[in-house]
Structure of Diguanylate cyclase (GGDEF)-like protein:
Amino acid sequence: RAKEQGKNQVQFFNETMKQTVLKKTIIETALHQALENREFALYYQPQFDIQTKEVIGMEALLRWKHPQMGLVSPGVFIPIAEETGQIVAIGEWVIEEACRQIKQWNEQYGRSLPLSINISPKQFLQENLVDYITSVLTKTNVPAEQLDLEITEGVAVFNEQYTIEKLQQLKQIGVHISIDDFGTGYSSLSYLRKFPIDRLKIAKPFIDGITEVEEDAAIVASIIVLAKSLKLRVIAEGVETNEQLNVLHSLRCDEIQGYVLGKPLPKEEFEKMYFV
Ligand code: C2E
Ligand code: MG
Ligand code: MG
Ligand code: MG
């Protein structure tokens, strides 16, 4: 029995877990330098009206290029930054950089395309989020209506009342709110009638199955109907094929984002593609 327990303990901290902890420590340490060394950049992915195929907005997506590790995926470093709290400083950089870029495009092209940025749960819970966003909008002279904040269902779990108040404050200054990865998180739908939100973003996994898996198609169809009856806009994310696009079109989805019409691009390329 003792031997078994001993064995279990050894197995408890196995090779994979050691690698995971090591990787986490390395990334955490490297993240400390990343802002200072200007290793971050924003890429921009277009969002389209499904009827007209016009660009109606874009999402800013964070990219991190470490001098030795190369490109590190946000899927890897965002959860670590979220856990360590580093996401707050990184997120502030994202807000500033995004607003600077909007301002430049507004002035240069005289067009005011809405821009979505991702706000992580820890960032959303920061006391000064609303003040911070207000100050950046004022400083950069960007209209609040041009900014869309993507939050996940997860923020609702923490404290519903707090979330409602924060969202109301954000609505008051004029920014838009989207629920990112809709359908994959918080299971209760009751928040939809309490939260002042503007748009649902249907999570990619449902879109992946839309042409082959009946259940996924049914879920997507229901989300679109739900959004319409709540007077919310609805966008499908991660749309990769024309078949998926056609199904979404026939289901009367409002907007789409995905490789089929446009990948995330560095600012210069986005500009050449969609502004010039
Ligand atoms: P997300 O906000 O749901 O962003 C959509 C992700 O799907 C992006 O991955 C985008 O590049 C990818 N994508 C878009 N269309 C397609 C497609 O057709 N096919 C495929 N396979 N992928 C597609 P990315 O850029 O790797 O970002 C992953 C996640 O990291 C984001 O998911 C978001 O949760 C987080 N993230 C990215 N930038 C930021 C940021 O500035 N702040 C915070 N807090 N999180 C961020
Ligand atoms: Mg997003
Ligand atoms: Mg998403
Ligand atoms: Mg997400």
Q: What stands out?
A: The longest strand covers residues 55-66. The chain has a mean pLDDT of 93.
